[in-house]
């Protein structure tokens, strides 16, 4: 019986990946908190969209933890992460569009 590629590559339970995810989690959570402060101060739609996009980066880190812990299979990991990538890009582009429209008025 062959093992899945994720197990052969040592993804599940990898101390190195866990350390990287902890650092990513700390960093993205800090940036997310700062984005919420900026949104609270400015109350603009573009700030809200950026905060949501950065919040999705925190979710990506949680998905990574789930994959390393063996809770989320690699197939679903890739599906969720690439969907989140698309949503983040769409939110940032929308924020730029909304911010540009706000600047013109």
TrEMBL record:
<feature type="transmembrane region" description="Helical">
    <location>
        <begin position="86"/>
        <end position="103"/>
    </location>
</feature>
<keyword id="KW-0812">Transmembrane</keyword>
<keyword id="KW-1133">Transmembrane helix</keyword>
<protein>
    <submittedName>
        <fullName>Uncharacterized protein</fullName>
    </submittedName>
</protein>
<feature type="transmembrane region" description="Helical">
    <location>
        <begin position="16"/>
        <end position="39"/>
    </location>
</feature>
<dbReference type="Pfam" id="PF24283">
    <property type="entry name" value="DUF7471"/>
</dbReference>
<keyword id="KW-0472">Membrane</keyword>
<feature type="transmembrane region" description="Helical">
    <location>
        <begin position="46"/>
        <end position="66"/>
    </location>
</feature>
<dbReference type="InterPro" id="IPR055894">
    <property type="entry name" value="DUF7471"/>
</dbReference>
């Amino acid at each position: 019986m062959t093992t899945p590629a994720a197990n052969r590559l040592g993804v599940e339970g990898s101390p190195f990946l866990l350390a990287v995810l902890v650092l990513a989690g700390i960093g993205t959570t800090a940036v997310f908190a700062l984005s919420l402060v900026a949104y609270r101060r400015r109350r603009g739609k573009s700030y809200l969209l950026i905060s949501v996009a950065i919040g999705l980066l925190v979710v990506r880190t949680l998905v990574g933890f789930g994959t390393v812990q063996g809770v989320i299979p690699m197939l679903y990991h890739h599906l969720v992460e690439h969907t989140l990538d698309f949503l983040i890009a769409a939110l940032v582009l929308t924020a730029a569009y909304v911010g540009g429209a706000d600047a013109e008025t």
